[in-house]
Amino acid sequence: MRMYTDPRGEAYKQLIDLAIRNSECFVLGEKMPVDMAECRCIKVLEALEPYLMKTIVIENGNMDEVIRIRNSYNSHAFYTAGTYYFYRCCEGSGNLLKQLANRFSDWVYPNLPEDLCFLKDGGGDYLYSVVHEDMYGLEVSEEEAIDLMNRMTGLFLKIEAHKDLNRLLDDAIKHQTDKLYISGYRLTELPERIRELTELRELEIFEQDLYRLPEGLFDLSKLEHLRILTADLESIPASIARLKNLRQLSIHCASSNRPTPGYRVKPKEEIGINHIPPEIGELEQLEQLTIQYTSIHELPLELAKLENLQVLDIGMCLIKKKPDFLKGMKQLRYINVSQDLFGELIESE
């Protein structure tokens, strides 16, 4: 079962205890050349050394060996060259794992060795993490997953029952997930109860028929990444200004997650979004603004207030000329304000 996000805090500790009981060993890796004199994870390796069972080294460029090892252990742990450490599962090693990190995504170089994975007796993952790919999973049945979620607040697993949106939101709210992906529910509007996801930091919505955004969405004060894909969107509400921690905003119209025979994309001139609200200038943390395929015909001057903005991608719109005020935004690394897909990379001086 895949996890929507990696458990943190008490849920992480409970999951470590569970994995220690159900696994033979766990694996940690150093997957890039390191200077051990400078590597901050060396003290972690020293602390874990009493539980070390064996070490495997895969030389850089030897993909045949990577594939052989991965197939041999049937584990997500082995996907590139590096040094892999196998540790015995027991109370002592489990206690160290709980002391050294607060969640599975903490297991990343240079602070810690990478990608904590637990292997079952005879091979195969019981619990895996691939931090750079944001992949976390637990090898349990649907029934076991539901039972575990009932017992562990903060463990949010992807189950078949989540094909029902209300069940998905029930569990997302119960476990206060910080990441959520919504797609395939044929929504025209998001439920107002989205505001109850108070810990949400990343939200992606791919719903072809979604046409308007509820006020409850803008109550998510911790939201940092918001990505919306739909065929058409009525507008970007002025309430967007309430998302003070937003760093990335991406809106892609002309998107379909269930195209049917004869499906046609609306002309840009008919897309609901025809302007960017000036309130966008209040998003002081915004680093990336992407809005694709709209009837937007001009940019608000308030964009110049976004001192942290590095990527401005307003492509496939109705703007005929890039506004002059963008020249004063020296921090921009990439600009696309055009009627097509292509922008320009700003070379640093």
C-alpha-based Rg, rounded: 23 Å
Dominant shape:
globular
Tell me which CATH architecture of the largest domain applies here.
Answer: Alpha-Beta Horseshoe
Q: How many discrete structural domains? A: 2
Tell me what you see in this structure.
With 349 residues, the protein is of the alpha/beta class. The protein folds into two domains: 10-143, no CATH class; 178-345, Ribonuclease Inhibitor (Leucine-rich repeat, LRR (right-handed beta-alpha superhelix)). Helices cover 17% and strands 20% of the residues. It has six helices and 14 strands. The protein has helices at 10-22, 42-48, 63-73, 91-100, 142-151, 165-174; strands at 25-30, 52-58, 82-88, 114-119, 125-130, 135-138, 179-183, 202-206, 225-229, 248-252, 288-292, 311-314, 334-337, 344-345. The radius of gyration is 23 Å and the shape is globular.
Summarize the structure.
The chain has six helices and 14 strands.
